[in-house]
Design brief:
This protein is α+β, with helices and mostly antiparallel strands. Helices cover 24% and strands 42% of the residues. The N and C termini lie far apart (42 Å).
Length: 142
């Protein structure tokens, strides 16, 4: 059984976006990060947690602890849609393979075109291959 697909289906059915799912190596801890346009409340987390608990019981998903929360201000960017949605935001990106001698980049997200993430840094505009992105996060402005 694909737990990620199951969680995605349940979360989307409740009207939320599944941002990320983390599982401990033996699947004993499940962390679910959800988002919604208006922002995530404690009641949202409780509603998703209750629904997932019921579904996991029916589907015989074996786990010890379930945590449901908001992705926070430094939300991870995982999908192509994330890079399209947050155009104009400050982000940090780490690549799996360096470009030149550099793996870490920070700048303003310019969009997603032809399989590449457009990033404007102080050194100019870069095109980073989406498949090479190991980790990307929003950088909150205060």
């Amino acid at each position: 059984m694909n737990i990620e697909a199951l969680v995605e289906q349940i979360v989307a059915g409740l009207g939320y976006e599944l941002v990320d799912l983390e599982m401990s190596p033996k699947g004993r801890l499940l962390r679910v990060f959800i988002d919604i346009e208006r922002g995530v409340t404690v009641d949202d987390c409780a509603a998703v947690s209750n629904q997932l608990t019921r579904v996991f019981e029916v589907e015989n998903v074996d786990y010890d602890r379930l945590e449901v929360s908001s992705p926070g201000l430094d939300r991870p960017l995982k999908k192509q849609a994330d890079f399209e949605r947050f155009v104009g935001s400050d982000i940090q990106v780490r690549l799996s393979m360096p470009i030149g001698n550099q793996r870490n980049f920070a700048g303003v997200l310019g969009g997603f075109e032809n399989g590449k993430v457009i990033l404007t840094t102080e050194k100019g505009q870069l095109e980073l291959p989406f498949e090479e992105i190991e980790k990307a996060r929003l950088v909150p402005r205060f």
